[in-house]
């Protein structure tokens, strides 16, 4: 806190040297060091409630719609009939909230390593944690990789809603983790993982895409605008065990009235298709070979 | 300078209260108050050279490709044969640099109100100002609206590369200015204007879109990722005098080898199409009626 100026939260990190996003703080609601990380929740002046882990903004009320909706609906609308979904990480509840909007989904498992994130989100972030109240949701406080090893061939969709590849989430960007996801997926299963930033992390994105392509017949990268993430954008890595999957063209297209009913603020089927179009400097590096 | 921390440039502005983007400064190269605005040029730690006008970042070497390429190629690839192009503002030269990549273009007029922006860009921002060396470019130090009144029915494409609607650029978002653009366009002419930010300026965008729709048969809004603009994204308002124009589907599609030859870092025809897909909260407000 107050790295740059009193009363402001500034995000300084060696993952994005020389740049910093700051939000004006109205009130610090909670600060705690858990077994895994520093948790900070504050009321901001213009972005509503903010959750930061290890000094990095995870979500704000004002712009969380983009990330949560894309993380959930990109994979769920790319699967013809998702019934059993696993979310790894995502202890704030935002992705679970979005997954629960699909009536075809029968079971939603959330595997969060840090129980305090879930507890504090329930206490301070109702806009996100409301997802936990759905009766189809089961929360497991456990390492996601371990959980998947114990549940082989069980899930239609696995969503990895991780923080940056430093600290507890580092292993979630590595090949062994992707192998575990593959084994935990049912035939035809689809995965979506937080894919970092095209302007900052192109080498990491390329590495993850490469090891994913060695395992999955279809791998694609999408991104969307999220003002409070570094450089204002975040990526999504999608992979399918079904070679017929065409991520750019959702198998489940949402009508305007479905979008309305699902109370979507960011996602619609046009945005789904468009999010896979890559700027030339990204395309050059990630040009899909599959 | 140093609003938040010594050695950092922080963008604090009442157009985006409660948030601030900061860049670490290596060296201030030039600071000057002209008749029109404060000009600041600095060498940043990780974004190359940076131009700021009245304390607001206009472009950085690292991410200028997105804005300059989209501003130029969205309208130029939406016109079947653009020959005469006017750029209003854009004194840094970046948009002119991109326009000059189209061999069908015979004349490029730049109308910049502040001569010092052009002069300082030539001195300190070679990556952008290299556009001025093209023999088809004529620079006019004049008010853009006045210039257009003197040149009726002359241009195939008019690009308004303005700063924010406060200070010298305020009038460039108003209806009278759009009427002048309409009169300065040839039949079938197309315009593209800096369209502000979907997360911050939706009311303004809606107002500009509305008065544009009263004048032009086709009006569309696009946006792209630019890390150093507020919220990391910037919009583009496009309008055509030709009711057959379909902005979402460029009439001049660039092949992979053309993209290579034109040395494009951001724009390609997929990005062109995708940039018109709007998040649901934007679509609700801007849903085109034309």
From TrEMBL, chains A, B:
GO terms for molecular function: spermidine synthase activity. Keywords: Polyamine biosynthesis, Transferase. The active site is at residue 161. The keyword Transferase applies. Residues 6-241 form the PABS domain. Homodimer or homotetramer. Belongs to the spermidine/spermine synthase family. GO terms for cellular component: cytosol. CDD domains: AdoMet_MTases. It comes from the Eukaryota. Pathway: Amine and polyamine biosynthesis; spermidine biosynthesis; spermidine from putrescine: step 1/1. Catalyzes the production of spermidine from putrescine and decarboxylated S-adenosylmethionine (dcSAM). Has a strong preference for putrescine as substrate, and has very low activity towards 1,3-diaminopropane. Has extremely low activity towards spermidine. This is Spermidine synthase. It comes from Geodia barretti (Barrett's horny sponge). It catalyses: S-adenosyl 3-(methylsulfanyl)propylamine + putrescine = S-methyl-5'-thioadenosine + spermidine + H(+). GO terms for biological process: spermidine biosynthetic process. Its EC number is 2.5.1.16.
């Amino acid at each position: 806190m107050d790295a740059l100026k009193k009363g402001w939260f500034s995000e300084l990190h060696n993952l994005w040297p020389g740049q910093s996003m700051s939000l004006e703080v109205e009130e610090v609601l909670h600060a705690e060091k858990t077994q895994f990380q520093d948790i900070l929740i504050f009321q901001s002046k213009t972005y509503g409630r903010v959750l930061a882990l290890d000094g990095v903004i995870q979500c704000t009320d004002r712009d969380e719609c983009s990330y949560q909706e894309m993380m959930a609906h990109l994979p769920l609308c790319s699967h013809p009939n998702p019934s059993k979904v696993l979310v790894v990480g995502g202890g704030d509840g935002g992705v679970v909230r979005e997954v629960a909007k699909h009536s075809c989904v029968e079971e939603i498992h959330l595997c969060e390593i840090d129980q305090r994130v879930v507890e504090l989100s329930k206490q301070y972030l109702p806009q996100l944690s409301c997802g936990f109240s759905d009766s189809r949701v089961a929360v497991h406080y456990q390492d996601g990789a371990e959980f998947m090893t114990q549940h082989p061939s069980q899930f239609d969709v696995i969503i990895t809603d991780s923080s940056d590849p430093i600290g507890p989430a580092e292993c979630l960007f590595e090949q062994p983790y992707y192998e575990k996801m593959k084994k935990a997926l049912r035939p035809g299963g689809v995965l979506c993982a937080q894919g970092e930033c095209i302007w900052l992390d192109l080498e990491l994105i390329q590495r993850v895409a490469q090891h994913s392509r060695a395992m999955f017949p279809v791998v694609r990268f999408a991104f969307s605008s999220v003002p409070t993430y570094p450089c204002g954008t975040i990526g999504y890595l999608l992979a399918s065990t079904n070679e017929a999957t065409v991520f750019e063209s959702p198998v489940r297209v949402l009508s305007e009235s479905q979008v309305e009913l699902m109370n979507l603020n960011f996602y619609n089927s046009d945005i789904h298709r468009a999010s896979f179009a890559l700027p030339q400097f990204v395309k050059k590096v990630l040009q899909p070979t599959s």
